[in-house]
Amino acid sequence: MSEADAIVRWGKLLLAAGVLLLGSSCVGVRQINELAIVTAVGLDVGKKPNTVRLSAQIIRPADARGQTGAPSGGTGEPIYSVETEGASIFDAIRNLGRFSSRRVYWAHNFLIVMHEDYARQGIQDMVDFFTRNHELRMNTWVAVTPDSPAELISTITGLEVVPGEAVDSLFRSNHVAGLAPGSNMRNLEESFLSVSTEPILAKLMLRPRGISNKKPEEQGSLEQVELGGAAVFKEGKMLGWLTPMESRALLMFREKLASGIETLPCPGDQDRRLTMEFKDARMDVDPGYSKGDIHYRIRVKMDASIVESGCAKSIASIREEAEALLAAQVKKRIERVVERAQREYRSDFLKLGEVFRNSYPVEWRGMSGHWSEVFSEAETKVEVSVRVNSAVLKAEGTGVR
Amino acid sequence: MNRLAAAAKAVLERKIAPGLADNEAAIDEVMGNCADLLKRSFLLGGDRRVPGLLVCLDGMADLGTVEAILKELLPFAEGSLKRFPDDSEVEALPNFYLSSASTHTCETVGEAIAAVISGNAVLLFEGYGSGLIANARGWKERNVEEPSTENNLRGPRDGFSESIRTNTALVRRRIRDPMLRFAAMTVGTRTQTSINIAYIGDLVKEGLVDEVKRRLGRIRIDSVLESGYIEELIEDAPLSPFNTAQSTERPDKVASALLEGRVAIFVDNTPHVLIVPTFFWQFMQAPDDYYNRYWVGTFYRFVRYIAFMISLLLPSIYVMLVSFHQEMIPTSLALTIASGREIIPFPVLLEALIMEFAFELMREAGLRMPKPIGQAVSIVGSLIIGQAAVQAGLVSPFMVIVVAMTGISSFAIPGYTSSLAIRLLRFPLLIASGLFGLLGFATMAFALLLHVLSIHSFGEPYLAPASPYRPSDQRDMLLRVPIWMMDLRPEFAQDRERMEGSQMPKAPKEGQR
């Protein structure tokens, strides 16, 4: 074969490749500016029975980001909130296409928030839809609200331009306040699929927290989204709520919460307050098994410091009492959440089943089928030890040290 | 072969005749009435007054040297030849009377004319059947200047010029080793371009020099105007966009290549010298790496590798992510990109192609333009591309950043000729990823990788020492280890030991001074 032949052959190959490339006409292409990027989704029960009302917060990038050198026409609103109804979630989303000029795009969704009523009816559909869709990210936050989800996702906060982004940052820093679980699609699905563990979702609500700059005398006239508390589930249906303080104890079980603050009455003086911050809290759950009975020994060790003291006595003198008070308080909270899980909801959202299975895999096999009954009968013993190692205070009750 | 060429060929093969007039006629017949041909007849000193003829080319031969030769031969000039030796041959003339540095005799008209054309003076005498060639070469040439395409901060500033002798001397000055050899060849039937193959006899890989000579000897071409002609005719991978023969203007690069056991090909009339075998990684290495401290050298090598990745991949990755895989962009970034693209009328692929083309246009225009206009064009170009296009809503600000990054990165690659290959390869990658997203990008990138893996340069794999993996050569690929650790030459060199080991300097301990 001569050189010229080789070149002709290569030329033909290239030509064929070129025709193939052009013939494909950019299959599957969708430009980023042709997408309606959803940043938050609300789910509610529809007006008619057996329908779903879906509200979506769609971002308007040009206005959400402002001028980035390019001129951009716009109404100035960073988000476009819409609502549809349908027989199922998928149906509702398809109905979204009736009026959305752009293709609805879910991959950048920050938040899925369900109304309490919707959650009580069962979240199987929702988990199914939002995990099967390959575009969706598993780190989307999931929450339940007693207020209107549509209103909640379109409430603009003072700091962020996009509400979905605001809730995203709220969730990211949830360990600062430590009052709600950081529930996202991943751990929801994990608990949802687990035989023993039941899902738990964070609670979002609208509270009049914002102060209008124009009318500062009307305190708290602007509603803001607040994260606190949790929704308890069993067998895919919501059962009820946990208070924010119960959620803190829950976080110790589920997310290894290591720090937080507690306000206590002063030792020997119920009217004055002592605020303590605990750090490096470590929880050990030891399951035990004897003759068909399961018992748990829950031990918590923590270091604490006194961060605010209104007590009349010197810190040195109340230190040991403060330790005991804090230990009792934490113990009370843990016992409370365990009590609610075992007796009230009979739902193992504390992952105690997993702990037991890891230690007693053989025994587990016999009881996995009726774990929720076994769990609610289990005995628990909570031990808390606190060590106050620093009083980061200058002022001491009535004067400066 | 036409009639004129046939006639000239017949004359060239003729022996030099004893009759001076015959020879003059023969020269005239071949060269015609050439404007720069200088013929000076004279009478040789001594009793016999032998008529002689000096032939040279004005401009190729140094007239001062020619005059000095004549002065020694003319009878009445002071200190000149007083008597012509009766019976001796012309060959004896230089032994007694000519002080020229290099002389030899010639037997045919062809040899005489070849000597004249290359700048020598040819002396012919009545009654003698051979001519005498005296070296009188001397022409105007550019000075040794700083190389314009390969700059550095620390290191020698001299660059090759157009004269092959100057160029070989620049290398010889750096390597005063008797084993440094220059083998001469001539390529080009009309241009008769001199080519020198430089190598160090005891370092170069066995057989490499013969292979280079074989490939050069195979060339049948009328003209060689630049080393690029040679490069394309001796390459291993003639269809590849990558160049498998490195070209450089820097004598220090050539010297270092020779010391690693490679071969350099000098071509007359060009400052670009070829180095073979060539490895891909060489294009990422600059002489500064070795002249600066090794920390700096290694760091900037990494900068260059990143620049290489950016200049090859960044536009494709951007196009791929923005038009196919938006879920792979972090949300905040996705929103920013989307906001910049809100009013852009083109798909991302077209936008990228337009901007890349605009950039290449500016580069090419900037290169070809007469220097005084350069500034005007660069101002207009950068304003149009950077500012006006964005404000008019034709391209997104992000695309401007991507293209600018790509352009700057491609200039950071020291081997300018190889950065051209990367600039070309960007386009197939860009189109493939714009048409098929990640699938097209990955396919094209792998095709490219397989291609680079498959090509060789004078028998050496192009990607060595990365693939095939050569452990001891790693010291000078990604990293630039300290000089005291580079004790071995590359694996293909004959004699691998470069220096004695363990020469890491140590400060003397206190009291031992």
TrEMBL record, chain B:
Task: Give the record's family classification.
Answer: Belongs to the GerABKA family.
Q: Which residues cross the membrane?
A: 302-323, 343-361, 373-392, 398-417, 429-453
List UniProt keywords, sorted A-Z.
Membrane, Transmembrane, Transmembrane helix
* Any Gene Ontology biological process: spore germination
This chain's source organism reads Cohnella fermenti
Which residues lie in coiled coils? none
The question of whether Transmembrane is a record keyword is answered with: yes
Q: Where is this region: Disordered?
A: 494-513
Is Hydrolase a UniProt keyword of this protein? no
Question: Could you state one GO cellular component term attached to this entry?
Answer: membrane
Name this polypeptide is given: Spore germination protein
